[in-house]
Specification:
- The protein is built from 13 helices and 4 strands.
- It is mainly α.
- The strands form 2 sheets. It has a two-stranded parallel ribbon with strand order 1-2. It has a two-stranded antiparallel ribbon with strand order 3-4.
- The longest helix has about 30 residues.
Amino acid sequence: MDLVNLNPALEVALFGAVLALLAAGGVMWRARRAGLTGWPAWQHALTVATLFLTIDLVVFGAFTRLTDSGLGCPDWPGCYGQTSPWAAHAQIAAEQAAVPHGPVTHSKAWIEMIHRYLATGVGALITGLMLAGWWLRSRHGSLSPWWATATFVWVCAQGAFGALTVTLKLQPLIVTLHLLGALLGVGLLTAQVRVLDGVAPSAGALSSSASGRNLRAWAEAPLRRWGWLVLALVSTQVALGGWVSTNYAVLVCSDIPTCQGQWWPEMDFASGFHLLRALGENGQGAPISMAALTAIHMSHRLMAVLVTVALWRYGAALRTWRPAADVSSADRTGSPPWRREGLWLWGLLAWQLLSGLSNVVLGWPLAAALAHTLGATLLVWRLVHLLVLPRLVHAPSGALAPAHQGLHPGVAGVSTP
């Protein structure tokens, strides 16, 4: 059997396109009912929907991995050369009869193919956003089409990693890079949503002079620059967590805070972090040792301490930070946005700690593992949402109006140092 069989590729792509059209149609219908008209507003609504579906796809991808369904269809992009497991029923039944405890079952095949269908639908939405972005790039206030083009390149790379995940039999490096790539896509789409927030119905408040000064102050604040370091730490921790999961090293330490009854158990970092190797093997082709798996697990734990301190301190700093404009204007409409962002980070940090501990103490239950993946995804989403902020431009009347990084070049931006 060919591991890459393109015979069903067109049918799978068409199925994804149908899913994308249904999603886009629903979004456009709701947007029109909400009174949103014009391409920039529709572009914002479609990008929000694509972001939401991408987060769903990340979690469903984790579900696929955690249920050992990644090889439920051992070829790509179809299933035994067919568009669906239903059409490949005979081949799946034969494989399951030959290897009763193998990776191929009817349920696993459906889980894997649903993941591929969803991924194809997200890819079709991103392709549509890119084509429409270039076609309507001259519309005032529209997002630069290069954003959607970069996202299109990303989704193609993700598709390639998806194929490699199957053809290389769940090689840990490929699966981990596939996860990191998924979170990169979440970050890209979140940045575009923030860039387009100026055309959302709630964007009017951004045009007030006090809010404009607040945004300028935040754009230049050292605290905002520190946020990029926090995002880098979180991304590193996500990579380590992915490495733990893809190497099935979660349960090598079943006690907290010690591991195997020791504060510093025997560990083999060289073998544990040998990147180019097959699943379950070390760099020499022998079975991976317990010491190597322990090193993988403990690295994630130790990094968790640093990330916990960083997120807690950064959340506290956000809760107390105030720009001069915010203080002078004495905004009483509610808690300042930076205070709310600090609460967001604290809440997600607590979510991650609880779900991470549950994975160890409760024996890696599926719900806790999925919650941990969702929490990591939401942390990336919220940090990018915080750090990619609106800029202000001069409207034709001379008043300040909201605009953002990445707007069409015809919209003149106000420079900031």
